[in-house]
Amino acid sequence: MQDSEILEALKVAQEDSKWFSEKYEQLQTKYEGRVLGIKNKNIVGDAESVEELLNIVQKKGEDTAYLLIETIPAKDVSFIL
Amino acid sequence: MPKIPCSLRALVGKRYFPFVTFFLTSSHINKAIDAIVDTGSPYTVLSTNEILGTRLPIHTMQKGETVALAGHRFFRYLINNVGMSFRTETGELFKTKLSSVAALVPTKLDKKTLNDVKDIPSIIGHDFLEENKIAFYFNPSAKITYLEYDAPPVNTLCREPTT
Predict the structure, then answer these.
(1) What is the rounded average pLDDT of the residues B29-35?
(2) A interface mutation test: which of B4, B16, B17, B23 has the most A CBs within 10 A?
(3) What local confidence, expressed as pLDDT, does residue A7 receive?
(4) Residue-wise DSSP of B27-64
């Protein structure tokens, strides 16, 4: 990939990550326990698993290289990494 | 000093955790990835979800050292010759090349295990920060976090066009 393509993809992904972080609590109510595909500050698909998500977003013609894959854990789950 | 912005996410109990976005390139992967910055982790790793997201055959990746994380056991499968690119706050590309980066491949690949590990994120660890001379600033009460590097990266090749 050309550097200019990477930079453009990163710009979108960075903004999507920031959007997801800011909306996290709001999205948690609706998408608890789901795997989400995010692009251009939109949820372009949600599913039980990554495999299921890929099938959904690829049917919509999304390029998964430019998609942020995020999860929203159940509210009663905590992680100490 | 040049900065790479991170975002803060209230994952657990309204505590904020720092995430950074990068673009991974290798012979088989071109992908935008969000990772938690964890100075307590000795390793930088790609999550199981990210590997599944590439549709690479994960069952052939059950190789390497095993590590325990969040109550699960994983192989550290090494993906060789990778590039990791970050976008700085001034719109430049910060590029690093690594001989390898590890993918977290569960020692069990049944449906229950994959579901149990799906919330474990990719991690930017101590190794990456040290090898690339990157500092990490994290002030959760002021909600400020970023990565910072001392010198311009060798591979700063690209800047966004000014409009």
Answers:
(1) 95
(2) B23
(3) 94
(4) SS-EEEEEEEE-TT-SS-EE-HHHHHHHT--GGGG--S
